[in-house]
Amino acid sequence: MTPIKRNGLVCIVLASLAGLAGCSSSNHVAYVTLGQGNTIAAFRVDNHSGNLTKIVGSPFNAGNSPISMLVHPSNKFAYAANQIGNDISLFTIDQSTGALTEVGPRAPAGIAPAFLVMDSDGHFLFAANQASNSISVYSIDGAKGTLTEIQGSPFVTGANPVALAITPSGKFLYVATPNLQSVFGYLVTSGGLQPVPNSPVLVDVGPVSIAVDPAGHFLYVANFIANTLSVLAIDPNSGALIAIAGSPFITCTSTTTACTNNPVWVAIHPSGKFLYTANKGTSNVSVFSIASTTGVPTQITGSPFATGTAPVFASVDSTGRFLFMGNQSSRNITGFSINQSTGALPAGVVGASTTSAPTSMITTK
Question: Environment class of residue 258 by beta-carbon count within 10 Å: exposed (0-12), middle (13-18) or buried (19+)?
Answer without folding.
Answer: exposed
